[in-house]
UniProtKB/TrEMBL annotation:
Highest taxon listed in the record's lineage: Bacteria
Naturally occurring in which organism (per UniProt): Rhodothalassium salexigens DSM 2132
Keywords on record: Signal
Signal peptide per UniProt: 1-17
Listed name of the protein: C-type lectin domain-containing protein
UniProt domain C-type lectin: residue ranges: 82-167
InterPro entries registered for this protein in UniProt: C-type_lectin-like, C-type_lectin-like/link_sf, CTDL_fold
Listed Gene3D superfamilies: Mannose-Binding Protein A, subunit A (3.10.100.10)
Length: 223
């Protein structure tokens, strides 16, 4: 008689264990998506201590010799910064004596390294140093670096942000800034007045940083 409650409890626990899914698996046998915090999550957590602008620790890309830095720029009364504001802010940055610029991406390997170093999350649209000039339909990086000098692009489909603001549809649109779409981790372009919270600064290797600053000379036709 005294052993019966123990047997009942054991059988109930055994039955529950048989029905319970293994750890990390849903009851229907599917593995759920695990949320991976991105660099923007870290920036948002620490931004209160850093004021309106939060900067990651610069990371060295070994092949190019450039340092890259993720920046969260959320100014008072603003949802973020335009491409031009991000470009101006990047140029004002210095690291180890190197002047900053918005990031220039020259290869698929470098871009993959960048995504690994600064993994985006669902809200972290990120400005890059590339513009699409509407008048002549040409792309150029900052500092007068023509797009044909790099030849690499990671374009989404469609290549523009789906908000109706793009060359040919919006009057008096001089250019479109290019950003990383966090959902696809590919590039899109949007109107020059659009504001995003994030951008990536590059501190190029000394030889590359001596290129002339002549942003008004777009590169070869693309997109």
């Amino acid at each position: 008689m005294t052993a019966w409650p123990v047997i009942v409890a054991f059988m109930a626990a055994f039955a529950l264990a048989q029905k319970a899914p293994p750890e990390g698996e849903t009851p229907d046998g599917e593995t759920p998506e695990i949320y991976q915090p991105g660099i923007a999550d870290l920036a948002a957590r620490e931004a209160r201590q850093a004021g309106d602008v939060w900067r990651s620790k610069p990371a060295l890309h070994p092949e190019s010799g450039s340092y890259f830095q993720f920046v969260r720029d959320l100014r008072p009364g603003s949802p973020g910064v335009t491409w031009a504001e991000a470009d101006q802010a990047a140029r004002a940055e210095r690291f180890q004596g190197r002047p900053g610029r918005l990031a220039v991406i020259v290869s698929a390997a470098q871009y993959q390294w960048l995504l690994t170093a600064f993994p985006p999350n669902e809200s972290s649209k990120i400005w890059l140093g590339l513009r699409y000039w509407c008048a002549n339909r040409r792309l150029s990086w900052g500092q007068g670096i023509g797009f044909e000098q790099t030849g690499f692009g990671a374009w989404d489909t469609p290549w523009h942000r789906e908000d109706g603001i793009r060359c040919g549809l919006t009057r008096e649109l001089p250019y479109m800034g290019v950003f990383i779409d966090p959902k696809s981790q590919l590039w899109r372009a949007t109107g020059y007045r659009k504001r995003f919270r994030h951008y990536i600064v590059e501190y190029p290797a000394p030889a590359d940083s001596q290129r002339p600053r002549a942003d008004e000379h777009p590169g070869a036709p693309r997109a």
